[in-house]
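Design a sequence for this backbone.
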C-alpha cells in the first residue's frame, strides 16, 4: 500500500521547493515537473537550480563520493552571479561591473557564507523549446564534467556544500542558460 501511495504521490507531485533538496537525485528525477518541457516565457528557476544541484550529486554517486549538502547562502551567491552575467552581458568568474561583488568569495560572504576553501564553476548553453528541466541541467553538468578544471570542483573531496544558480536570456530563437555553482568547504566559525 505504501509503495502505491508513494507512486501515486510522485505521479501527481506538487513539491515544495525546499523538498527538491531533501530527496535523493533518483526520487528527484521521477518528479513530473522536472521532466516537463520548459515554458521559457515563465520558467521555474527554483526547479532548474535544484535540477543542476541534483545532477551534480548524481555525478558524485557515480564516483562513490559523498553527496553535497545544499547551502542556501551559496545558492543565493550563485543565482546572483548568473543573473549578473545576464544583466551585464559577460561570461566570467569576475564581475567587473560591481566592485563589492567582483570575486566569487565576495559574493559568498555577502550572502553569509564564509568557508575554509571555496570554488566556483560557470557555464552557459543555449536551448530551444524541446528541453525539459532535467535535460537542461544534465547538459550543463555534462559541460562541467567534460572540462578538467570544472570536473575537479564537481568531484572535490574538500568541498562539502553546494549552491547552484541560473539566469536566462533570450538570444535569437534560443534561450541561453547561464549556470553558476558555488562550492564551500569547511565553514569558518562565526565570532
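Sequence:
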Amino acid at each position: 500500500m505504501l509503495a502505491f501511495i508513494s507512486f501515486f504521490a510522485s505521479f501527481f507531485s506538487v513539491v515544495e521547493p525546499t523538498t527538491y533538496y531533501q530527496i535523493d537525485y533518483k526520487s528527484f528525477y521521477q518528479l513530473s515537473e522536472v521532466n516537463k518541457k520548459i515554458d521559457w516565457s515563465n520558467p521555474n528557476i527554483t526547479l532548474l537550480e535544484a535540477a543542476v544541484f541534483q545532477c551534480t550529486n548524481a555525478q558524485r554517486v557515480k564516483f562513490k563520493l559523498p553527496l553535497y549538502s545544499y547551502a542556501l547562502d551559496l545558492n543565493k551567491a550563485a543565482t546572483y552571479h548568473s543573473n549578473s552575467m545576464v544583466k551585464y552581458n559577460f561570461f566570467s568568474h569576475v564581475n567587473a561591473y560591481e566592485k563589492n561583488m567582483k570575486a566569487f568569495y565576495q559574493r559568498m560572504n555577502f550572502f553569509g557564507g564564509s568557508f575554509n576553501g571555496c570554488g566556483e564553476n560557470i557555464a552557459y548553453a543555449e536551448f530551444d523549446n524541446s528541453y525539459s528541466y532535467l535535460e537542461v541541467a544534465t547538459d550543463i553538468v555534462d559541460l562541467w564534467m567534460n572540462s578538467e578544471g570544472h570536473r575537479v570542483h564537481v568531484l572535490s573531496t574538500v568541498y562539502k556544500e553546494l549552491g547552484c544558480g541560473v539566469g536566462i536570456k533570450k538570444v535569437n530563437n534560443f534561450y541561453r542558460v547561464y549556470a553558476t555553482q558555488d562550492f564551500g568547504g569547511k565553514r569558518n566559525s562565526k565570532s
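DSSP finds seven helices and four strands in the chain.
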